[in-house]
Automatic annotation (TrEMBL), chain A:
Record-linked PANTHER family: MALTODEXTRIN IMPORT ATP-BINDING PROTEIN MSMX, OSMOPROTECTIVE COMPOUNDS UPTAKE ATP-BINDING PROTEIN GGTA
Keyword Nucleotide-binding (UniProt): yes
Native source organism of the sequence: Falsiroseomonas tokyonensis
Name of the protein described by the UniProt record: ABC transporter ATP-binding protein
Pfam families reported for this sequence: ABC_tran (PF00005), OB_MalK (PF17912)
GO molecular function, one term: ATP binding
Positions of the ABC transporter domain: 4-235
NCBIfam families: PRK11650.1
Alphabetized InterPro entries for the sequence: AAA+_ATPase, ABC_transporter-like_ATP-bd, ABC_transporter-like_CS, ABC_transpr_MalK-like, ABC_transpr_MalK/UgpC-like, OB_MalK-like
SMART domains: AAA
UniProtKB keywords: ATP-binding, Nucleotide-binding
Entry keyword Cell membrane: no
TrEMBL record, chain B:
Keyword annotations: Cell membrane, Membrane, Transmembrane, Transmembrane helix, Transport
Keyword Chaperone (UniProt): no
Residues in coiled coil: none
PANTHER family attached to this UniProt entry: INNER MEMBRANE ABC TRANSPORTER PERMEASE PROTEIN YCJP (PTHR32243:SF18), MALTOSE TRANSPORT SYSTEM PERMEASE-RELATED (PTHR32243)
Membrane topology: Multi-pass membrane protein
Annotated organism of origin: Falsiroseomonas tokyonensis
Pfam families found in the cross-reference section: BPD_transp_1
InterPro entries linked to this entry: BP-dep_ABC_trans_perm (IPR050901), MetI-like (IPR000515)
Cellular compartment(s): Cell membrane
Chain ranges passing through the membrane: 26-51, 90-114, 126-147, 159-183, 204-231, 261-283
Similarity field: Belongs to the binding-protein-dependent transport system permease family.
Full protein name: Carbohydrate ABC transporter permease
Domain ABC transmembrane type-1: 91-283
Main location per the UniProt record: membrane
């Protein structure tokens, strides 16, 4: 078990294309950290640099206090789970899991003990003599995890391990991974493009974009207090709604004017925060769940307005209402019992206690 | 397009869909006819060889009647050839040369293909293409310069000279086949092995060779065939009967002055063709089984 430090790490490819642009990240012992971002954001490259599968152009990576820049993967004491499982097709499940230990010259009894123990944790004891081709996707993924567990490494690295599974199995394996981590407590770095996976698994989420880290924090913090427009839009499903707006200082109170002319009063506890933006263009952001049918109207900072829904999506536990406002598609989340019909105007309430204002130039949430 | 033309075209579409089975019938007929035609072309010579090998010299020389019929079948040609010590020497030479060439070829081309497919180094791409280009140079162009080299090594008129020379034919092509096969093995497999603690040599021996076994067998079959059937090089480099392989031994030594012992030549040629047939029959099953098992699927 160990902590992982990534310091000013840069990865540049030929032609000076920078995949990772000098990132810093400290991962504590036992921590489960998820790197998330769109494809090409540098998350996989970062993971592969920690694994030693990619060379570092500059900077430093340390595992358990030892700088590993020049240490080959096999001596870094890490285990990795790949998206396509990468099981050795000619070996049985047992041999797959034992391979790393055999190469490290462990005693036969010790190997058997560890493999059986990992097989019990993952519930694959009945499969030990099978070849990978006789396994389903979920079973292969378990074996790949078993191969990592038996090694009892300092760090687990997961590279999009659930992307090849169907939706139902993905949810099941997600819980499985979390259970395993709660049991073995090995420091884990997990890469995914799926923000739901990131939110559900992580102690801390690292959101990456264009080779830089946009924000690091616990899932709830990222969700409720995103620091940049990218994070605000990336975390959460359906995504946060954005519209261009203007901050106006009218008759002593700060207001946000939407493109359709609706003026929303800024909650008083935020006036000081937004004061400097008076008279300037901003982006107004609000999550779909803070755009609902009028309720809690006795609370402060609830703005009610009328919209004409274009599409209604009943999800069972909630209903999504899509409408257009000045060229932007907006999504609201209402109670499934609330009547809503496409084309029939309805009232919605925005809970401004949860609004976000974003600086147009810097993209930072104010 | 107006509605009326659209509806008028509808029956055509249905007609096409309905004719699927008749199209399939056509395809089958064409396939069968071409296959039968090809089979006749390819099988006629060996069948004729077999028929001739069962005839006495007198019957071969007799020009009356159909040459495709045997009137007095005899095994005397087989008995003569198997009792001929020279033929057994040829056979042993062929076995010796082929086994050595296949071993040398497989060791060199497996190592070369692994390096070219997986260890990215400067010029590896150009080298891989270069390896293939050398295969395109015909042996008829090479045997004169090679004669100098083999002579320089003092291996002229020796079956060991052929062991040195044949790999120039087999190594490039086998390397090329194996580069392709190794390249089809997912990159993650070596990465997993690297992380599991394998060295390059362990990765080759414990992962690549077992996983690429179908490719290795294909390459082995090729090396075996080339070596067993080689004709130009032994003709050029070997003149002593004791050192000759089957291919040239049968045709050069079974001709006495102007008399062709056709029955014996055919019997000898058929016996010479037997090992490749056995190798193919045995390994092809393995090869196809390996392919269909999807051995490289992670």
């Amino acid at each position: 078990m160990a902590e992982v430090s990534v310091r000013k790490v840069v990865k540049a490819y030929e032609g000076n294309v920078q995949a990772v642009k000098g990132i810093d990240l400290e991962i504590a012992d036992h921590e489960f950290v998820v790197l998330v971002g769109p494809s090409g954001c540098g998350k996989s490259t970062t993971l592969r640099m920690i694994a030693g599968l990619e060379e570092i152009t500059s900077g430093e990576i340390a595992i358990g206090g030892t700088v590993v820049n020049d240490i080959p993967p096999r001596d870094r004491d890490i285990a990795m789970v790949f998206q396509n499982y990468a099981l050795y097709p000619h070996m049985s499940v047992y041999e797959n899991m034992a391979f790393g230990l055999t190469l490290r010259k462990f005693a036969k009894e010790e190997i058997a003990k560890r493999v059986n123990n990992a097989a019990r944790i993952l519930d694959i004891e009945a499969l030990l003599q099978r070849k990978p081709k006789a396994l389903s996707g979920g079973q292969r993924q378990r074996v790949a995890m078993g191969r990592a567990i038996v090694r009892d490494p300092k760090v687990f690295l997961f590279d999009e391990p659930l992307s090849n599974l169907d939706a139902k199995l993905r949810v099941q394996m997600r819980t499985e991974i979390k259970k395993v981590h709660q049991r073995v407590r090995t420091t884990t770095v997990y890469v995914t493009h799926d923000q739901v996976e990131a939110m559900t698994l992580a102690d801390r989420v690292v959101v990456m974009n264009h080779g830089i880290i946009e924000q690091v924090g616990p899932p709830q913090e990222l969700y409720h207090s995103p620091k940049t427009r990218f994070v605000a839009g990336f975390i959460g499903s359906p995504a946060m709604n954005f519209f261009p707006a203007q901050v106006e200082n009218g008759s002593g109170a700060l207001r946000v004017i939407l493109p359709n002319g609706v003026a929303l009063p800024v909650p008083t506890d935020r006036t000081a925060r937004y004061q400097a933006m008076a008279g300037r263009e901003v982006i107004f952001g609000i999550r779909p769940e803070h755009l609902t049918e009028p309720k809690n109207l006795d609370r402060d900072n609830i703005a009610v307005f009328e919209v004409t829904p274009e599409v209604i999506e009943p999800m069972g536990m909630e209903t999504l209402v899509h409408f257009w406002m000045q060229g932007a598609e907006i999504c609201a989340r209402i109670d499934p019992t609330t009547p809503a019909e496409p084309g029939r105007p309805m009232q919605l309430a925005a809970d401004l206690n949860h609004m976000h204002l974003i600086d147009v130039q810097s993209g930072r949430v104010l | 397009m107006s509605t009326s033309t659209a509806t008028r075209e509808m029956p055509d579409i249905y007609h096409k869909a309905g004719s699927l089975s008749s199209e399939r019938r056509w395809a089958l007929w064409t396939a069968y006819i071409s296959l039968i035609f090809a089979a006749i072309i390819f099988l006629a010579p060996p069948v004729y060889m077999f028929i001739t090998s069962l005839k006495t010299s007198a019957e071969v020389a007799n020009l009356t009647g159909s040459p495709w019929l045997v009137r007095e079948p005899t095994l005397e040609n087989y008995a003569a050839i198997l009792g001929n010590p020279t033929f057994l020497v040829f056979f042993w030479n062929s076995v010796k040369i082929t086994v050595c060439v296949v071993l040398i070829t497989m060791v060199i081309s497996t190592l070369a293909a692994f390096a070219l497919a997986r260890m990215r180094f400067w010029g590896s791409q150009a080298l891989a293409t270069g390896v293939f280009l050398t295969y395109l140079i015909p042996e008829t162009l090479l045997f004169i310069p090679l004669y100098q080299i083999v002579g320089g090594l003092g291996l002229l008129n020796s079956s060991w000279g052929l062991v040195v020379v044949y790999p120039t034919l087999t190594v490039p092509f086998c390397t090329w086949i194996m580069i392709g096969y190794f390249a089809s093995i997912p990159k993650e497999l070596d990465e997993a092995a690297l992380i599991d603690g394998a060295s390059w040599s362990q990765m080759l021996l414990k992962i690549f060779i077992p996983v690429a076994m179908p490719g290795i067998i294909a390459a082995t079959i090729f090396a075996f065939t080339v070596s067993w059937a080689a004709f130009v090089y032994p003709t050029a480099f070997v003149t002593t009967p004791d050192e000759m392989p089957l291919t040239i031994g049968v045709v050069s030594q079974l001709v006495r002055a102007d008399t062709f012992a056709w029955g014996q030549i055919m019997a000898g040629a058929l016996l010479a063709a037997l090992p490749p047939v056995i190798v193919y029959a045995f390994l092809m099953d393995y090869y196809i089984a390996g392919l269909t098992a999807g051995a490289t699927k992670g």
